[in-house]
Design a protein that fits this description.
The protein is an alpha/beta fold. The chain is about 45% helix and about 10% strand. The strands form three sheets. The protein has an eight-stranded mixed sheet with strand order 8-6-9-1-10-11-2-12, covered by helices on one side. Helix 3 packs parallel to helix 6 and helix 7 runs parallel beside helix 16. The chain starts with a helix and ends with a helix. About 40% of the residues are buried.
Length: about 500
Amino acid sequence: MNTKLYNLYSFICVFPLWIFRSNLDVKDILLLSIIFGFLPIIINFYIIKINSEKFNFFFIIWICTISFYGLDQNIGLWPIAKINYFSSLIYLTSYFAALLNSILIMIVFFIIIKFIKINGVKILFSFLMIIFIFNVFDKNKFYSNFPKKVLSEDIKNITKKHKKKIIIIFDEMSGFNSADNKVKNGQKINQDIVDYFTNKNFDIYTNAYALFRDTDQSLGSILNLINNKDDYFKINKKKEVHFMKKSNNFFVSNNLMSNKFFDLNENQNIVVTQSMYINYCKHPKVIICNQFNPYDKKIKFLEGFKNTKTTRYISFYRNNGSVTSYFIWRILLELRIIDTILDPAGEKAAINYIFDQLFKDIKDHENSTLFFSHILVPHIPYTYDEACKFDGNRSIDFNRISVSQKRIQHNLEKKCLIQYLDIFFQKLEKIKKFDNFEIVIFSDHDSRIVNSKEIFNNVIFVHKKKNSIESKINENELSLNEIINTFYKY
């Protein structure tokens, strides 16, 4: 096998295709091509030049390393490599599992090359060449595949009979009587939240709970107006999750395939705000789909967020899904050189920007009767400090602090979220829109700090009627499904 072929082998393993898929400016592409492409390729060419004829132990290790790197870059091994195949024997974090599985793959490569020698390299070369060519023509990870914002210009006419609603789902937010209230800041923060919604004339359900502690089950059942767990599991006893389908789009995790709440006649010209986890925009009534877009160059982040080019570059690199990119991202995050613009931390850093988008949509779409938002806040990782600024140090501490400290920080996240919600409400009040809307705010499940079936899955649920002039406290234990089904009939 001659040097030219070794060089080609090196090229297909190292060439960073992800750079050309990330909606970057030309100067950014050139810079990243030098860092992730040109320099590594030159280094590899040099190693080949001085070692290829020797075919010694160092050269075999090098071939194994770049072979793994090439496979990782072109396939994105993180979703597979992080799986703990030894979970019944030993607990491993995602990173240790990924490291162990990566080493096992390299050992397989080493055995192939060590015992078959040049023919082993040829086998790997053919394998990686096919993957590389396939990856060149695969458009799945291209930014152009990101969900479009404007889905329809076919606006239906509405009448005065159509109620106008804002529904906001905060992800992983515990309620007023959850276990998170038993720590030192719990009662005060929850009382402040109760007082806030009381002053805004919301009805407050202090003992609302979610039927499920997983988002797909909880929201799938609520939005399909399922009343209880028995009715949910009767749908298909062979499946645990209903109404959801894994998405083929790289930028979307799951599609919600059935949504009886959106089907309701009163919901027309629906405007959606969502994360990448659940796609609600498949519904034919949705006209605007605002999915949190980390590639959006106009995003404004909270004070304290490291809004640098390095943060953007490494976030895009990690979004490629390779094990290598996850480890580089994590190291730089630990060293506090970067933050991340990806879900869910990116949404927490951009919470004001997300609310501003929703505010603009409400102003611009007079004929829309439903503004539906599912926001990944206050979902972990925790990121807010006592002044509600962004603090990336806290985002890496979750597994290092006690349960009590986690609960204290979760309560702080709740407090800050309400602070940012208030800014949004104040803007609605200035344009005299706040009173004209029915507003529903709830969470899909509690904080899950202790993931135990014995814990009461208490969640926030508040509801403001149109032109409401008073607030009521409901202390009954009611599931989210029961409450929603009381309000809306299919």
